[in-house]
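User: Structure with S-adenosylmethionine, tokens only please.
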Amino acid sequence: MTDSRPEWAPAAINLDQPSSARVWDYFLGGSHNFEVDRRVAEQAIAFKPDMPDLARQVRMFLQRAVRTAAAAGIDQYIDIGAGVPTMGPVHETARETVPGARVVYVDHDPVAVAHGEVILADDPGAVFIQADARSPQAILDHPEVRALIDFDRPVAVLLCSLLHFVSAADDPAALVKTLQAAMAPGSHLIVQHASNDGQSGDVVKMLQMWNTNSPEPMYWRTHDEIEALLDGFTILEPGVVQVQLWRPDAEEQARAEQDHDRYASYAAVGVKPGSTTG
Ligand SMILES: C[S@@+](CC[C@H](N)C(=O)[O-])C[C@H]1O[C@@H](n2cnc3c(N)ncnc32)[C@H](O)[C@@H]1O
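Assistant:
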């Protein structure tokens, strides 16, 4: 049985199909999800009980990486595969350090877009556009992106929990290269990617369950495959590491080390080399 359609749900969406944006929202404790999303999310939790914790770890990495970019003076951000922009999103985090930071959110999910448009309606420095990450040049050429982002100056591009939805046939490396070509020297690429390294049989079953139930199949990759996606960027310390081990806050450090192999999800930040112009 499907939910009755809430007021904020766009008419075009199919309430019988789960979406990764809304399942992720459920893991993060948000309210922009439907019965079908919650059912798939609970099935995933049955296989891997720490899925909600992983979603929170990814969000905390995103925030630490954005603070790193902001500390380097970056005042413009493009968050691709942003999901529902709640629970400490990029514009709030960046503006803690750079009050005037401008942010473009991109997602193909109509619920993420609809909710993002409401949240950002009175914010001239942030916008949410609906686009497919697999057409990165269309994102770069989008009029709202061009209005907000100056590609002659460093920009931070976020691909968090996004590239594992891009198949080998859709060429994630080419996707990154297209973005890289548009980024000025000093720009940051912020990546988090699910991995099949060391995954248990149960977790592999969870992936099969997701790929059977969802129109958005996932393609987990190894550490080395993920590192190769950052080719041409100078990877900041500590490198391509488990998401919770990327520069954890002092209070998170002990737990992060204890949870060393828990998530099989890698994170990294790359900087485009060359002299900066901005
Ligand atoms: C797991 S959520 C991650 C949300 C957020 N980036 C984070 O890390 O917390 C993945 C998001 O990627 C979006 N997505 C997946 N494939 C996409 C594509 N081809 N183009 C644009 N967005 C996509 C989904 O709609 C979803 O919102």
